Structure formats: C-alpha cells, structure tokens
Amino acid sequence: MRYKKRKYFLAGRINLIQRSKIRELFEKAKKMENVISLGIGEPDFDTPQVIKEAAKQALDEGYTHYTPNAGIPEFREAIAEYYKTHYKVDVSPEDIIVTAGAYEATYLAFQTLLEQDDDVIIPDPAFVCYVEDAKISEAGIIRIPLREEREFQLDPDELVEAITKRTRMLVINYPNNPTGAVLKKKTVKAIADIAEDYNLYILSDEPYEHFLYEGAKHYPMIKYAPHNTILANSFSKTFAMTGWRLGFTIAPTQVIRDMIKLHAYVIGNVTSFIQIAGITALRDKRSWEAVEAMRQTYAERRRLVLKYLNKMPHITPFRPKGAFYIWAKIDPELEMSSEDFAEWLLDNARVVVIPGTAFGKAGEGWIRISYATKKSQLKEAMERMHEALSKL
Predict the structure, then answer these.
(1) Number of domains within the chain
(2) C-alpha distances in angstroms, 126 versus 173, 205, 385?
(3) Which domain holds residue 300?
(4) Angle, helices 272-283/285-310, rounded to nearest 10 degrees
(5) Which residues, given as ranges, of the chain have pLDDT below 70?
(6) Which residue, 61, 72, 133, 208, is the most exposed by fewest CB within 10 angstroms?
(7) Radius of gyration of the CA atoms of the chain, in A
(8) Which CATH number does the domain housing residue 159 bear?
(9) Does residue 126 sit in helix, strand or coil?
(10) Are 302 and 332 part of one and the same domain?
C-alpha cells in the first residue's frame, strides 16, 4: 500500500488558533516610514538597574543550572511575603509556581482545569490569549460584554445568568486590558461569592496591579475567594521586565500540584538566574522606587493623552483608572468599523492604534491607545491624529 506524499503534517487543533490582528497591523506599519506606534502593550522603560545587577551577580555565582520545577524556594517565599506585605493575604510558598510570564500561567490554568464539554466565561472585550487558550483546551466559550455604562466592570447579575451546569471557570483581568478599567471592591466580593456558590474557578490575571490613578485601588481576587482563585501575575509590566519572561501563579494546593506536572513538560523550569533577580525585584526598595517613578510617568502621559483626546473630533475616550491604555469610542456617524478606522489612522496619520475587535466582538466601535511611549512621541501622535481627523 502506498501513501500520498505530503511535505508535512499538521495537527487540526493548530487551525483553531487565530493570528492576532494586533500583529497584522504591526507588520503593515513596519513597511511604512515615519510611523508612531501607540499599539504595543509594553513598558518603554528599562529594567531597574538593581534587578539587572542581581541577575549578573547570580550568573557569576553559578546560577546556571536547573531549578525545582515549581521554582527556587526562596523566590516562592519572596512572592508569598509580597502578598502578605502588600495585601495582608497569607499564601503558602507551596501553592506558588514560577512561570514563563503570565502567558504560561494562563495556559497552564486552561490546560489543567478545562476539557471538552466544559465552559469558560470570558469577558468581551478581553486580552487576546484567553479565547485561544480556551480553544486549545477544547472548552466552550461564553462571552459576557463589558459595558461602558458600568465603567467596563463585570456585571455580577449577567455573570449569574451566563452560568450553566457546564461552566467551570471565569476569566477576569483587572486592571483591565484593553479598557483600563478597575474593579470596585464590592464587585470583587460579589464575583467571589458567585464563584463559591456555583463552585467555579476564577482565573484572575493581574499584571497591571501597580499602575493605578485617581486614588483607585487593586483588590486581588485571591483575598476574597482563596479556594476558587488561580491568580496569574507577571514581572513584565511592574518591573519593565517583558523580555525576561518571569511570572507566577498562586492556586489551591491540588491545582498547583497538577499545574506543576504540566509545567515540567512544557519548559521544565524558568531560568535560574532570572528567578534570583526576581527575589531582588520583590525585596529591594530601589526596585519599588523605580516602579513608583514609572507609575508617576504613566500618570503624566495619561493626563496628556486624555487632554488631547477630549478636544479631538470623532473620538471619545473612556477615562481609565488603571493599566496604561485608553479605550476610545469612534464616532458612529463616521460609519467606520474599528479595523477600518485603525487602518485609516495608519494611512492618514501614520499612527498605530489597535482596533477594538482584536479583543472581541464587543470591541467594535472602539480602539485601544497605549501611552507606554515617550511624551514627545505621544504629543506628535496626538497632533497627527487631530489633524487627520479634522479633515473627515
């Protein structure tokens, strides 16, 4: 028997994953000259020097070998100390796993907790990886819209209505990407109560926790639903360590134990000297001074961009209280989709923004603007946008 020759074979599941619209726009922009990007969700700051020095010292001290799969014990202890100091939450180091950023943390949660015939509730709009992770885990996806009139907070009543016998997990991400919204304490408590009543896991993705404005506060979900929460967090945004790929997950003991089994086969362990640098990031006051300086700079940029947008035709910004994004509404009279509007701005203003539909259907009519860009670049981008939109 002869088989038909093929160049290569691909698993069907890979076709479930959609290519990010964010990347497509970036690739178009790369082929153009004199473009200012307000699209990427990455701090433009360098990693604090004290953290870099800690990594160099760790290399010199021989931290070039494997670590325990879950992470270096002292690093996990430092993470537990951090939650005790900042939020008065008791966490056992044994319930922590060090991951390659929050990306891996969310992937492990989906793969460990969900399977075919399970449902996961994901807000709309939401960060792009959640839906793709759900597809790979073969779970059903239920989207709940985040509404402007509720300041893009999850509505507990709508959450209850969406729950079925198949619902196993809820994903939340606050401070929110893409809207910049922050959850109020009463909403956090309501979601925690619902999770306990309906026996749901909450995957709470919290990498923007330190970038808050106008007196807003962050309430970690693990404080209110400790037995139901899988908390994913990252050093990428807080300490401007995106390229280091350092994050962690906190979860109930049995969940962590099973996540570690999968993690061991995915990457084995996070780079040893990077974990040592993570200890310094959490324990050295100089790293936290750098974080506060970054927050203050973001706050200045936020005020600047809002000032421009509030005077700009055909666009209305939502006033965010967290993260480093502004979620802005497109004038419906333009009769332009989010994607068309983003492409129009690229072509006519040489400015990259992200169409709201990159984050879900409910993002139609909106764009995401990142202000993780130098002030001079932001001013130039805002002026370009204003000039272009004034001609519509």
Answers:
(1) 2
(2) 8, 11, 25
(3) 12-46+288-390
(4) 80
(5) 1-8, 21
(6) 61
(7) 21
(8) 3.40.640.10
(9) coil
(10) yes
